[in-house]
Fold this sequence. Notes:
Layout: H1 2-14, E1 25-28, E2 32-34, E3 38-44, E4 51-56, E5 62-63, E6 67-69, E7 72-76, E8 84-92, E9 95-105, E10 112-115, E11 129-131, E12 142-146, E13 155-160, E14 164-173, E15 183-191, E16 196-202, H2 203-206, E17 216-221
Parallel strand pairs: 2-9
Antiparallel strand pairs: 1-3, 3-7, 4-5, 4-8, 6-7, 8-9, 10-11, 12-13, 14-15, 15-16, 16-17
Amino acid sequence: MLMLCAFITFSACSSDDDGPTNPVSNAVVPTSAKIGAEVTVQGSGFAAGQTLYLQPEQGTEVNTNAKMTSNGATFTIPYTMTEGKVNVVLKTGNDSWTLGSMTLLAADNPISTLSLPGEMGIGEEVTLTGIGFAQGDAVGGTVYRVNLSEKPLKAERQFSFNGETITMMKFNFYQNSASAHDYDLIVGSENSNGSGTLRIYDGMSAEGDFSKVTPTSYSGFGKIVDATYRERTN
């Protein structure tokens, strides 16, 4: 009996040395939210100097740039995130605490009343008009598709790069191909460390929808601003 009591006492004393205490108490994390939506994590102890991250099960964690108040942290879920479960992690200096987890749901279409010119030529500059465009849409981490045969026009999400920013996107049409549909979608992106990745999506298998196409990826670049494919003529 004496040995058992001594062991229990020793274990209880050692729990005081487990590291810094989480500064936020009574944290309440929403169970789910749509990508692009504004979210508030409630709790006591939020303060300036703290940072809130979304940590997916796979991929790079993303800084939410949350606005901190004494009783909560408010942020917009970045469009660079993908659907699935993420942990909400609070960081202060070198210390971090998981406040809870939430499920990210597919985003609502951010663009409405989309309109395009009736005719477009390859190589011509085109202007899309609509409600919902914002600074950064052209260099965000999400790609949308517009089917010109559908009325009204709508933007359909194709894919997102978690923790990356798209720096270049273009179609490569193969000039020497017998088929007018022989083309690739080429996308360059950059992560928070400045490392660039080039992804090539096969247009022949996509038929205009790249949401289920697995790209061929090449990494180890710097910031990618353009890419040109040189065709063989023989």
